Amino acid sequence: MSAQVARVRPEGWTEISAVATDPEYRGQGLASRLVLDVAFHMQERGDRALLHAAATNAGAIAVYERLGFALRRRTTFSAVRTPSA
Predict the structure, then answer these.
(1) Predicted TM-score (pTM) of this structure
(2) What angle do CA 59, 62, 45 make, to 5 degrees?
(3) For residue 53, which of 6, 64, 79, 83 sits 20 to 30 Å off, Cα-Cα?
(4) Pfam families from the xrefs (predicted)?
């Protein structure tokens, strides 16, 4: 299991990013405990936790909602490729 912290950091917020659990270990509450612990420590220092998930990642969204997180905003991301030479 892994998590990356602080890729995005607007004033008063810290992002929890790339939370992933190996499929063999899913369903044990590991990701939930990790997210809650990291969010707790952010709150202790005065920040709020910020999470993001692709709209198609229903599993992650369900976990985040069970943990008390709520949808604040939908964001559209785009990718641009340069032409090959």
Answers:
(1) 0.71
(2) 110
(3) 83
(4) FR47
